[in-house]
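User: I'm writing a short report section on ligand binding and want a predicted complex to refer to. Could you take this sequence and protoporphyrin IX containing FE and write out the structure as tokens? A short remark afterwards would be nice.
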Amino acid sequence: VVNISPFHPLYQITRPKLAPITFLYEAWFDLILGGRYSLENQRMHEIYGPVVRIHPEELHINDIAFTDEIYSTGKRRRNKQVHLNLFAGPITEAMVSAVDHDLHRLRRSAANKFFSRAQITKLEADIEDLADQLCDKLINIGTKSEEPIDLVTAYSCFTSDIISGYCFGEPFGFIRQKSWEPNFRHALHSLLTPMHVFQSFPLLKAIVDLMPSVAKWLDPRVKGLVEEGNEKMPARVHKARREYQAGEAPERPAIFILWLGGESYSFIAAGTETTAWTLTVITFHLCHNPTLLDKLADELDATDALTSPLVRPRKTPLPPRRHSRGPPPLLRVSQRLPRIAPDEHLTYRGEFKDRELTYVIPPGTPMGMSSVINHHNESVFPDSHPFRPERWLEADETQCRRMETCLIPFSKGSHQCLGMSLAYCSLYVTLPVLALRVLPRMRLYQTTVEDVAYDHDLWFPIPKESTKGVRVVIS
Ligand code: HEM
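Assistant: Sure. The structure tokens for the complex follow:
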């Protein structure tokens, strides 16, 4: 009754009947139906307009003009929402788990300089080297065996090696090892699985803290990750520190030699699956649409693989500050990402069905957007579902600016992805090498567009349950 009484600070805001009364409405879609609240949020926007109260305390917004108000930078403080802070175990000590704006700034300021564009440019040679090793391994394994290769697993070995090499001074060696196992991705998924349970029953997060003591009874893949987070990573950090103190500093200092903390786990988790899935989806579409691959190969040939507008020039692997002429990273975190303005009233002005809307959003209200909704905004990205990187080449400056405002794959503002430049660098360096060396020999194996299409959320966008992955054979 309190939640829908006229005295509730969000009473004036359009709402469906049930969602503002009880958290159970969200739980029905996320916990029972399995990560489907984003789709329900999209349906609500179609009925109720650009600002909707999606549960008792939270608003969801579907108006790109309001993006910078939600995800602001500078002196305007933005907290995260406790309800969707679903991380447990060692990651709770990381910047991504910091709810309070000032605590987040403190944690992030220690890491910022390691992920600046200038710093990431220095990694280009290492990434090129790993990309070549990845291609060699794909061709070797692919041509020697009839077994299809699971592409995300292969790419995740590659991205784990990039980020671990940068964090600890030496890569985990997942690419150098003979097969694609062991790796991080299966275990990461197993740990994400209880996410919607934690969303509804946050006290259960304590179970993850018990995991080290019950590790020996766990699924071996989860056990591996638990051991990694609680034993091996701290050990690597200590080793790096010892070597540094003994004067055995490598040429380019690794992050955790200079800066120690609970972040290592979150960096590996954040840097592995995200870029790997983006590479997988691009690869899928290039194999699925050979005309596109031919076009890309022609451009790479014509420019000596250095200046294709579809993939960034390898000599300058990072995009310009406005990435107006390259394909954007695809949807990789589909979960809505709410922010709270703790000290400001925000005024929303918009319209819906010829009606002017003005809402004053009180301080302390969680309000968020979802990339799964933004990136399929048909007024900004007409015919948004097909993979058409050309839309960025065909658009004029005004349209490009509109598309960029709507894009939130890395989120925006003070909590924007720390590894954005590293992700871009990895993609721009790796795609031309793959497109020239491996993709002409690669064929999809029992894989259709449904295997890469968004079906539901598990923090990341997950395809339909029955998928066997994106599988390829290489001749
Ligand atoms: C295509 C690749 C990637 C995508 C789409 C992506 C997306 C995102 C998004 C949406 C967030 C915001 C999460 C939130 O608000 O809670 C985020 C945060 C973060 N990402 Fe990425 N990411 C990518 C690659 C990477 C890589 C390679 C790293 C390597 C270190 C990384 C490290 C981080 C970290 C540390 C944060 C937390 C930042 C903070 O809380 O201030 N990400 N990422």
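A remark for your report: The pocket of protoporphyrin IX containing FE is lined by residues 95-96, 108, 163, 266-267, 270-271, 274-275, 278, 329, 332-333, 337, 409-411, 415, 417-419, 422-423 (CB under 6 Å). Confidence is low (pLDDT under 50) at residues 307-318, 320-327.
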